[in-house]
Design goal:
The chain has helices spanning 4-17, 53-58, 87-94, 113-119, 130-146, 176-187, 196-202, 250-259, 270-279, and strands spanning 29-33, 39-44, 70-75, 98-103, 123-125, 150-158, 191-195, 209-210, 213-214, 220-224, 243-245, 264-267, 285-291, 316-324, 327-334, 377-378. By secondary structure, the chain is an alpha/beta fold.
Length: 386
């Protein structure tokens, strides 16, 4: 059983893990304790191809100081050689006496590090602050399990389910507190996705802001659709160059975003794009901001998602309901997302096979301007629909 000192060290290791670059590899932190329980080294994984957290921490120690020490790690030490060697072997060679970790590595090839350590006579304790580590790594774990990024779909609507008035105007449906919450959540995402219809109609900057100031973490802007991005679009002022995909193949887009290490995808592109993601099971969390207002008319928050009969309805599980000023935020998750293809190993070295999901055969809508192609290509401010 983990001691209070080891639990405190695990909290520190989780803080260190969050410093790591979001990439195709997991964010992992490590702390080395001497026999008296004092922290003598810290480390974290800085990105694909760099030293893993355990090795990074050990590199800050004279070799003799690691002997008899305890390594506290947020993810089970890997048992696989990719771009770097197995962390389990590095810990064995360093002479540590005990290893405490939070979460089992789900990788077929990388897992088993705990067993390898035990077989070498090292005392091993797993599952320490497992829920905290799982929360940190949820997007990466989803990518491993489903073979695609973790997708959050957000929309704002009136109480009667409309995303805009009859003339298309939508600013603003929700109030300042709800819009501030959206910006905070944007900053937690790796990529923010809109369709070309939303881009042309609203000219959004797709930045994450606190008032007029940019937040430190900015999602990469992503545009899906065939319509050219106007040269004077505010998206070109974004700190990150936009990625533009001239395709209707959402699975191909998610494949490419995953290859770029963008595992937290925030879809904010209006009813057409949101409906396309939902229709094909490409949603892991839904954020519905509901304002106490009535708009009537045809512009519903969602379009066709493939529900032809009540038996086909998409059931959700409510995670939370939160009041934001006069508005409500309902956070819900679809029941039982299904893996679509095998995943890569956590070293990022082995590309997986593909069994791609498709968007609908017909055009998404005239507003979206999307067309079917397999081409996805990158190109060299705020009209949010709230």
């Amino acid at each position: 059983m983990a001691t209070d000192v080891e639990i405190a060290a695990m909290r520190r290791a989780l803080e260190l893990a969050a410093r790591g670059r979001r990439s195709r590899n997991p964010q992992v932190g490590a702390v080395i304790l001497d026999p008296s329980g004092q922290i003598i080294a810290e480390g974290w994984h800085h990105g694909a191809g760099t030293a893993h957290a355990e090795v990074d921490a050990l590199s800050h120690l004279p070799a003799e100081d690691a002997r008899g020490a305890t390594a506290v790690v947020t993810l089970e030490p890997c048992n696989h050689r990719g771009r770097t060697g197995p962390c389990a072997e590095a810990l064995i060679e360093a002479g540590v006496a005990r290893v405490v970790y939070a979460l089992d590595d789900p990788g077929e090839h990388e897992g088993g590090g705990g067993a390898r350590l035990r077989s070498s006579g090292i005392d091993v304790e797993g599952g320490v602050l497992e829920a905290d580590a799982r929360a940190l790594l949820d997007p990466w774990l989803t990518a491993r399990r489903l073979g695609r990024p973790f997708v959050t779909i957000k929309w704002a609507q009136s109480l009667d389910g409309r995303a805009a008035a009859a003339d298309g105007s939508s600013q603003w449906i929700t109030g300042p507190a709800a819009r501030a919450d959206v910006h905070r959540r944007r900053s937690e995402a790796d990529a923010i996705v809109v369709g070309t219809g939303t881009l042309v109609a609203d000219d959004p900057a797709l930045t994450a802001r606190d008032g007029d100031a940019l937040l430190p973490d900015q999602p990469v802007p992503v545009v899906i659709g065939a319509t050219a991005v106007p040269e004077d679009a505010r998206i070109h002022e974004h700190p990150h160059a936009p990625l533009v995909y001239a395709t209707r193949d959402l699975d191909a887009v998610l494949d490419d975003l995953a290859e770029r290490g963008l595992h937290r995808v925030f879809v904010e592109g209006g009813p057409t794009l949101a409906s396309a993601f939902l229709a094909h099971g490409l949603a892991d969390r839904i954020l519905a901001y509901i304002a106490p207002t009535l708009l009537g008319g045809p512009r519903s928050a969602l379009a066709d998602i493939g529900v032809g009969a009540i038996a086909d309805q998409r059931r959700l599980e409510i995670e939370t309901i939160e009041r934001l000023g006069d508005d409500l935020l309902v956070v819900a998750v679809p029941q039982a997302a299904v893996p679509r293809r095998p995943t890569t190993d956590s070293s990022g070295d082995a590309p997986s096979g593909r069994d791609a999901a498709r968007a609908p055969d017909g055009p998404l809508t005239a507003d979206d301007g999307s067309v079917r192609t397999r081409t996805a290509h990158p190109t060299p401010r705020e009209g949010d629909s709230h």
